[in-house]
Amino acid sequence: MAGHEITDRIADLIDEEHRLRKGALHHGGLTPEERLRLKDLERQLDEAVDLLHRRQALSAFDDD
Fold first, then answer.
1. In whole angstroms, what is the distance from residue 16 CA to residue 25 CA?
2. Of 1, 9, 6, which is closest to residue 52 (Cα–Cα)?
3. 8 Å CB contact between 20 and 41
4. How far apart are CA 32 and CA 35, in angstroms?
5. Residue 64 — very low, low, confident or very high, per pLDDT cuts 50/70/90?
């Protein structure tokens, strides 16, 4: 996965996370399914950010 694909994926995950959290504020909380989805989004976001950091580190070392 290329760097721009990772950042696009991160942006998509953040957008969905914001939609869920915003909906929770307006509707009095999250459903059990939404809570599970939010946890999954958080996990995927952590993984994508870690992958992006590894890619950036490798790129920095490849330039040397």
1. 14
2. 6
3. yes
4. 5
5. low
CA distance linking residue 47 with residue 51, whole number of Å: 6
- Six-digit token pair at 58? 């490798």
**pLDDT at residue 2 in the model:** 81
Which is nearest to 40 in space by CA: 17, 64, 11? 17
pLDDT, mean over the chain: 92
- pTM comes to 0.82
Cα–Cα distances (Å) from 28 to 44, 49, 50, 53, in that order, read 25, 30, 32, 36
Structure tokens at 61: 């070392």
